Amino acid sequence: MNHTSVRRTAGLSVIEVLVALAILGIVTAAILTTYLGSIRTNSDSGRRTQSVQIMNAIGRRVAGADPVVLAQPGTPIVWDYGGLTADFPEFRGDGISDPDLYRVVVTNLGAVTLGTASVVHYSVETCSRSAGGDETCVRGDTAGVPPGPEDDSPTGLDGIN
Hints:
Layout: H1 14-63, E1 77-79, H2 84-87, E2 102-114, E3 117-129, E4 135-144
Antiparallel strand pairs: 1-2, 2-3, 3-4
C-alpha cells in the first residue's frame, strides 16, 4: 500500500486567524474606551478649572467694588452662556479658552455685621456645560461693599483696594 502522509506546513489556519482577530478587536475596544473616558475626564477637569478662574476674577471685582458686578439685594446679576465677553472682554486673553461657554450669577446675600464693621455677603456661581449637555457649577462667597445707585461708583473695602 502506498500511503502518502500529508504534512502540515508552517502557518496558521483560518480559524486561528479569526480567533486572533477577535481577541485583537476586544483588546482594541477596551483600550479605546479607556482612552475616550480619559479625554472626557480631562475636558471636564479643564472646564471646572476655568470655571474657578472666572469665579475668582468676578469675586475679586466684587471685593474691589466694580459696579458692574455688585448685585442689588434680591436681584442677582446673570451673564448667560455667550454673555460674559460683553462686560469682560479681557477674559478672551486671560487664559480662558472660550468665555462664551460659561454662565455666571452674582447674588447679594445681604449685609453681615461684626461689631461695628459691616460688609455685604455675595455669592458667585460659575457654570459650564459638558459635551453631553450636563451643567456643572462651582460656587464661592466673598465680601464686598453695598451696591450704590446707578450713577454712583462705590469704593472698595478698606484694606483690599
